[in-house]
């Protein structure tokens, strides 16, 4: 067991230069969940990287869209649709850590995890793109605001006959706090 901890400690020491400039974002989000239905949500993102390029891994969960008819002409009109999304991507920050105001652009892959009350919803891989800005000192606490667009197409089915593709995601506003190390 000691060896495992020693190996983990050695990895942390050797990886510490790559972690400089990374951080954790905690944010509130409001955006499209499914076909022009918008909801509030919460999310977290972990970033690793240097002064300009960052690798992001994030999660956002939205409130349930209630009384939504996923497939038109289906017998189930009162679907409760849940949407969770996992993001993995790259981000480019335009100014170095000496500027307080730092705009950025990014994008990557999204895994849309959706579920409904009566229907079977297959998770699907999609994409996302974002544009945002941070304000604050580095290292330290920064405030962030960004627009993000997520897109994925999920297959929804009640039986073998009732199948349809539904677009999940859309444009969202995310506002929160970043802890930069």
Can you describe this structure?
The chain is 10% helix and 66% strand. It has one helix and eleven strands. 31% of the residues are buried. It has one domain (21-180): Porin. The radius of gyration is 19 Å and the shape is elongated. It has an eight-stranded antiparallel beta barrel with strand order 1-2-3-5-6-8-9-11. It has one helix at 2-19; strands at 23-34, 37-49, 53-62, 65-68, 79-93, 101-116, 120-121, 124-136, 140-157, 163-168, 171-180. It is mainly beta.
Outline the fold blueprint.
Layout: H1 2-19, E1 23-34, E2 37-49, E3 53-62, E4 65-68, E5 79-93, E6 101-116, E7 120-121, E8 124-136, E9 140-157, E10 163-168, E11 171-180
Antiparallel strand pairs: 1-2, 1-11, 2-3, 3-5, 4-5, 5-6, 6-8, 7-9, 8-9, 9-10, 9-11
């Amino acid at each position: 067991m000691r060896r495992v901890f020693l190996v983990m400690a050695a990895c942390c020491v050797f990886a510490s230069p790559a972690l400089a400039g990374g951080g954790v974002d905690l944010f509130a989000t409001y955006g499209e969940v499914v076909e022009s239905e918008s909801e509030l949500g919460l999310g977290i993102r972990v970033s690793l990287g240097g002064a300009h390029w960052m690798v992001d891994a994030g999660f956002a969960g939205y409130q349930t869209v209630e009384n939504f008819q996923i497939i038109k002409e289906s017998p189930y009109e009162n679907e409760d649709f849940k949407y969770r999304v996992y993001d993995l991507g790259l981000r480019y920050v335009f100014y170095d850590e000496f500027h307080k105001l730092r705009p950025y652009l990014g994008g990557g892959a999204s895994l849309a995890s959706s579920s409904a009350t009566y229907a079977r919803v297959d998770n699907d891989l999609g994409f996302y793109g974002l544009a945002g800005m941070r304000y604050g000192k580095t290292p330290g606490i920064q405030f962030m605001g960004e627009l993000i667009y997520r897109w994925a197409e999920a297959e929804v089915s009640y039986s073998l006959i009732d199948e349809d593709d539904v677009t999940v995601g859309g444009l969202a506003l995310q506002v929160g706090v970043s802890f930069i190390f």
